[in-house]
Amino acid sequence: MDRIEEVLTSLRRVIRATDLHSKHLAKTSGLTAPQILLMQAIRKHEGGTIGDLANDVSLSQATVTSILDRLEKRGLVQRERSTVDKRKVHACLTDQGLETLKNAPRPLQDEFTRQFNDLQEWEQTMILTALQRVAYMMDAEHIDASPVLDVGTLDRHMEQHKGGQPYNQRED
Question: Could you tell me the pLDDT band of residue 172, with boundaries at 50, 70 and 90?
């Protein structure tokens, strides 16, 4: 296998690992990686505002609001308007949300983050530089992306149907 094939195979493995892990999260917990990350942030900043949460998970407030809408419909989070400043809305996990989060698998980036942090600074810089160059070579450096290892839109609905089965029960 020549180097180009090796690079493309490695890229495909990263994409495939992300896709498989996303499907595993959906199948085992019915949640997406962004939903789990947001719930973790809510647990960490109990009563945090939507803006605080958006900053913590590096997503837009609009995306966080959309994810919160879905989590709230499932009874996993609740939003409360501030009694001090009516413009602010705080998010809290419900008991069901805490239990769901406790039993949910860890997002793929948690393991990546742990291993990346164990690398020497020069190794981290080398990886970052190489990935930035790959993004440039794929004309992708201007694509808006958040630091969430997941496929598809980050605020997607998990119960989208395909072939009559809910998303979290599909085999594809």
Answer: very low
Every domain of the chain and the residues it spans:
3-152
- For the stretch 77-113, pLDDT in tens is 999 887 888 888 889 999 999 999 998 888 888 889 9
What is the C-alpha R_g of the chain?
Answer: 18
- C-alpha span between 149 and 46 (Å, rounded): 24
Answer CATH for 3-152 from 1.10.10.10, 1.10.1740.10, 1.20.120.790, 3.40.50.300: 1.10.10.10
Note the maximum CA span of the chain.
Answer: 64
Q: Nearest-CA neighbor of 147 among 31, 33, 48?
A: 33
Q: What angle do CA 24, 30, 36 make, to 5 degrees?
A: 85
